[in-house]
């Protein structure tokens, strides 16, 4: 199916000027070079060039061009999770995230743009090397002040823009300056051209310096700016003589621009450096508006900084951000002003408060309409980068109580990074000095640690942590206490200990009923239904399930509603009422879509597809299983893929394709074994029994071993597309190479068979030896050979039949 | 095959036959092209006098470029001036002083001698970063 190119490249904020040849060369290079690193000082335009190159490569990298902005990633261990987040890949239990990522990218033709690697250059190098080694069609375009220094890397040094020369003023740097000045509302006539030329030279063609200067043309003429920058430059050279000239020029320009700001604008700019990524006006007000800035001033100050090109924003002015180079400068200024600690602390505190409100709105408060709950969840998710920065600060500064508070309320953090990220953060914070932390708070946050561990399939550790949590938690924190109880229920059920689960579910229900907490009533009732189901008490299970759904609807959160509906679906399946089961699953699907939780959605779609297959609704079954498979594949979830294969096996069997059923079941079993998971052996045995009866022992066994050897994708395609033919795509025929060569090249290839040197060939054909060398290089490239001797052998073999 | 010797390295006494020279030039041309060198482009060559210099110059000319040799033993400042004056996009050199002098120039890509020699089979390109392992495919 032809899809539009997939990418996450941002819209360009203004016109891209110059660098035509560079763009062309770089796009050419990325055709054959796996890793290209754009190197150069800050402000030279690495990011912008990379984005422009990448945008031009969209047609060539049909399966995706993905920008990973590493500037917002503070720690090496978050590089892979950030890449996974961008690619929408989730971690799998018991597997390093990088393995899941490389497995997902193995057959994809895609380009990863790793922007701003310099502060994490070692990790970026390792990751890039791993990707290139295991994913033959993936290329990496990195930007960094320092090269990655890996074997497959081509280091490409980004130069400044071309400078005007004596003859012509039509240079890239001049064009950029004029373009940005015009954007700032200044029309510069031909009279000012000599000054513009002088300024561009003074700024060494550095794009960021030119933009900062152009933003000031409404007040100062290019001549005045040039004079002042010259002064500034002479000041600077006395200070840091060791820094490279370009870096000094850039610093001079940024310094100059900063000094021209009003005192309040300066305060504002340096405070804005605490944000991880983009921010909105609201957040800027909450964090930056402290003496001497009043909240009502923030919007004007921000606008002023945008006019001066120091802050960037989107067209609607909802998101603001700082260029990495400016941000670093601003951080230094913040530090010099002695405000860094204060601002970081404030950033952490504000996020804590914000997140506490979001958490209450999304989960706890009764009677909140769903769209408001969803808005709170969405806000929480959009603040993830800032939450990470804040947590990092909490750990670094030893402010464990605030850090733990953030962990206990960040619903956005839970499903990200393969559900393991919350575990990492909590474990890191708990490893610090806890003497100032109330025991109760530790118990509270352990509930979320247990939640993360359960999602990572570390059941016994999860249970252990949950029990510790329960023992230490105050009865006053009722909501989290109930959440904890329900996590224990889930873990015990998964461990096959339903009897023990019962009392936790009952306790949760009792407490939640007393406090009017609809979420936990629903969760407790769903737990009771699951316990009853394992004990074969179907009517009780149904009653609890229905009650759970009613409480869940009262709460309105789509996740808990879907959870209750899925429970009812399971009960109906156990009863043999497939129609009711399908209806329950079908109801949950749109809820989960709204929520944007792909893991739950994939599971629900797979169940719903399997039930549809049993009801002989083959079209619907195929559609849902295919959708589920796509979700799991894209997120790199082998467990989910195995689930779909098992469902496809059911589909094939009900369609009367017993062979396809065996193949898909075998592929599912093999995949499950490879990830250390048990298969549902009863169904497989039954299926194999029916297959033996109908197809015979040897046919069945040969199908089973063929299915085990098949790739999951092939096995799935076999059922989904109804392919009855043997799997395995035919090997593409060797291209006819001879016709690739021009007549002259064929002639030279022929002469090589006679062992002639370039000089001899040149004499024979009356051309220059350089031309002969060029032709031979062409032949080598076209045929993929590495020596003249190979060409000679090839030519000898083909000379008998030139048209072959 | 033609065994005629065409160059002697005065330092090491190593020789290159005409066939070897042809072979190495062909590989070097491919490598230059892969890095975007086009007809009319200036390519800086800063190598000690010897076979590598000859191969590099040969290849640059064959690719249609303008060879711009810079003596390797120049004073750092002069070296920097010459490199900047060339306006070249590509520099062929292994010498630390040349790499340093190219730092603030318009040079986009630095190729090592190993880069000129190697002809990887796949899409893989080796670059200056793996020059510790000299390629054996040169002759």
From TrEMBL, chain A:
Entries under Pfam families matching the protein: GerE, nSTAND1, TPR_12
Gene Ontology MF annotations: DNA binding
HTH luxR-type domain: residues covered: 734-799
InterPro entries: nSTAND1, P-loop_NTPase, Sig_transdc_resp-reg_C-effctor, TPR-like_helical_dom_sf, Tscrpt_reg_LuxR_C, WH-like_DNA-bd_sf
GO biological-process terms attached to the record: regulation of DNA-templated transcription
Gene3D superfamilies named in the record: P-loop containing nucleotide triphosphate hydrolases, Tetratricopeptide repeat domain, Winged helix-like DNA-binding domain superfamily/Winged helix DNA-binding domain
UniProt cross-references to SMART domains, sorted A to Z: HTH_LUXR
TM ranges: none
Protein name: Tetratricopeptide repeat protein
Species whose genome carries this gene: Nonomuraea turkmeniaca
Automatic annotation (TrEMBL), chain B:
InterPro entries: AMP-dep_synth/lig_dom, ANL_N_sf
Gene3D superfamilies: N-terminal domain of ligase-like (3.40.50.12780)
Pfam families in alphabetical order: AMP-binding
Domain AMP-dependent synthetase/ligase: 3-123
Protein name in the entry: AMP-dependent synthetase/ligase domain-containing protein
Phylogenetic classification of the source organism: Bacteria, Bacillati, Actinomycetota, Actinomycetes, Streptosporangiales
């Amino acid at each position: 199916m032809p899809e539009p190119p997939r990418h996450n490249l941002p819209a360009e904020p203004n016109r891209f000027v110059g660098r035509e040849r560079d763009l062309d060369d770089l796009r050419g290079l990325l055709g054959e070079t796996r890793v290209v690193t754009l190197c150069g000082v800050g402000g030279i335009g690495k990011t912008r060039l990379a984005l422009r190159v990448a945008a031009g490569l969209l047609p060539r990298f049909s399966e995706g061009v993905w920008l990973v902005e590493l500037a917002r990633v503070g720690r090496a261990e978050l590089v892979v999770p950030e890449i996974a987040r961008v690619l929408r890949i989730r971690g799998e239990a018991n597997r390093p995230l990088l393995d899941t990522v490389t497995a997902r990218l193995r057959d994809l033709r895609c380009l990863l743009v790793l922007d701003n690697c310099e502060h994490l250059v070692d990790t970026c190098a390792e990751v890039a090397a791993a990707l290139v080694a295991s994913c033959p069609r993936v290329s990496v375009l990195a930007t960094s002040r320092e090269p990655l220094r890996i074997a497959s890397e081509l280091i490409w040094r980004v130069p400044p823009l071309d400078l005007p020369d004596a003859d012509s003023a039509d240079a890239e740097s001049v064009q950029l300056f004029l373009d940005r000045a015009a954007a700032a509302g200044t029309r510069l006539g031909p009279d000012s051209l000599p000054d513009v030329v002088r300024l561009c030279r003074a700024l060494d063609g550095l794009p960021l310096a030119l933009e900062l200067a152009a933003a000031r043309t409404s007040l100062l003429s290019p001549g005045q700016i040039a004079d002042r920058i010259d002064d500034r430059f002479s000041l600077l050279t006395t200070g840091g003589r060791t820094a490279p000239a370009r870096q000094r020029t850039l610093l001079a320009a940024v310094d100059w621009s900063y000094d021209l700001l009003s005192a309040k604008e300066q305060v504002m700019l340096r405070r804005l450096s605490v944000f991880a990524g983009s921010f909105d006006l609201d957040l800027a007000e909450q964090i930056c508006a402290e003496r001497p800035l009043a909240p009502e001033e923030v919007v004007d100050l921000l606008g002023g900084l945008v006019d001066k090109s120091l802050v960037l924003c989107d067209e609607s002015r909802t998101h603001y951000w700082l260029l990495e180079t400016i941000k670093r400068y601003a951080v230094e200024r913040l530090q010099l002003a002695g405000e860094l600690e204060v601002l970081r602390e404030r950033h952490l505190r504000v996020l804590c408060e914000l997140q506490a409100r979001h958490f209450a709105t999304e989960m706890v408060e009764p009677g909140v309409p769903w769209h408001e709950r969803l808005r709170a969840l969405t806000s929480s998710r959009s603040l993830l980068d800032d939450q990470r920065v804040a947590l990092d600060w909490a750990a670094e500064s030893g402010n464990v109580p605030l850090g733990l508070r953030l962990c206990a309320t960040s619903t956005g953090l839970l499903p990200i990074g393969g559900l393991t990220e919350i575990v990492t953060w909590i474990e890191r914070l708990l490893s610090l000095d806890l003497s100032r932390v109330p025991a109760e708070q530790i118990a509270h946050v352990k509930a979320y640690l247990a939640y993360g561990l359960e999602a990572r399939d570390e059941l016994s550790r999860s249970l252990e942590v949950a029990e510790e949590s329960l023992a230490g938690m105050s009865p006053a924190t009722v909501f989290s206490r109930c959440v904890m109880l329900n996590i224990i229920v889930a873990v015990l059920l998964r461990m096959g200990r339903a009897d023990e689960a019962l009392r936790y579910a009952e306790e949760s229900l009792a407490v939640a009923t007393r406090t009017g907490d609809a979420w936990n009533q629903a969760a407790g009732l769903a737990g009771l239904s699951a316990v009853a189901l394992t004990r074969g008490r179907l009517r009780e299970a149904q009653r609890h399930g229905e009650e759970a759904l009613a409480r869940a609807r009262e709460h309105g959160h789509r996740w808990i509603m879907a959870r209750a509906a899925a429970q009812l679906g399971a009960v109906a399946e156990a009863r043999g009422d497939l129609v009711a089961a399908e209806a329950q699953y079908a109801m949950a699907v749109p809820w989960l879509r709204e929520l944007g939780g792909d893991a739950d959605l994939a599971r629900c779609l797979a169940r719903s597809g399997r039930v549809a297959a049993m009801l002989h609704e083959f079209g619907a079954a195929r559609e849902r299983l295919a959708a589920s498979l796509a979700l799991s594949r894209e997120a790199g979830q082998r467990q989910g893929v195995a689930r779909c294969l098992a469902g496809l096996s059911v589909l094939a069997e009900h369609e009367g394709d017993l062979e396809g059923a065996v193949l898909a079941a075998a592929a599912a079993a093999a995949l499950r074994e490879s990830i250390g998971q048990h298969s549902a052996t009863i169904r497989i045995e039954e299926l194999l029994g029916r297959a033996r009866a109908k197809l015979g022992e040897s046919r069945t066994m040969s199908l089973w071993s063929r299915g085990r050897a098949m790739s999951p994708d092939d096995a799935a395609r076999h059922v989904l597309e109804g392919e009855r033919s043997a799997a395995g795509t035919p090997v593409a025929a060797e291209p006819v190479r001879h016709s690739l060569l021009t007549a002259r090249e064929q002639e030279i290839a022929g002469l090589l068979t006679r062992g002639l040197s370039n000089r001899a060939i040149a004499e024979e054909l009356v051309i220059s030896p350089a031309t002969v060398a060029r032709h031979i290089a062409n032949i080598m490239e076209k045929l993929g050979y590495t020596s003249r001797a190979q060409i000679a052998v090839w030519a000898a073999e083909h000379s008998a039949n030139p048209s072959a | 095959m033609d065994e005629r010797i065409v160059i002697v390295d005065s330092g090491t006494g190593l020789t290159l036959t005409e066939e070897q020279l042809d072979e190495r030039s062909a590989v070097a041309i491919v490598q230059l092209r892969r890095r975007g060198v086009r007809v009319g482009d200036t390519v800086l060559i800063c190598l000690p006098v010897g076979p590598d210099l000859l191969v590099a110059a040969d290849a640059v000319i064959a690719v249609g470029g303008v060879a711009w040799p810079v003596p390797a033993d120049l004073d750092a400042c002069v070296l920097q001036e010459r490199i900047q004056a060339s306006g070249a996009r590509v520099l062929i050199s292994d010498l630390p002083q040349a790499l340093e002098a190219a730092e603030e120039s318009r040079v986009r890509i630095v190729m090592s001698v190993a880069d000129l020699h190697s002809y990887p089979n796949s899409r893989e390109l080796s670059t200056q970063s793996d020059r510790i392992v000299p390629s054996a495919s040169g002759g």
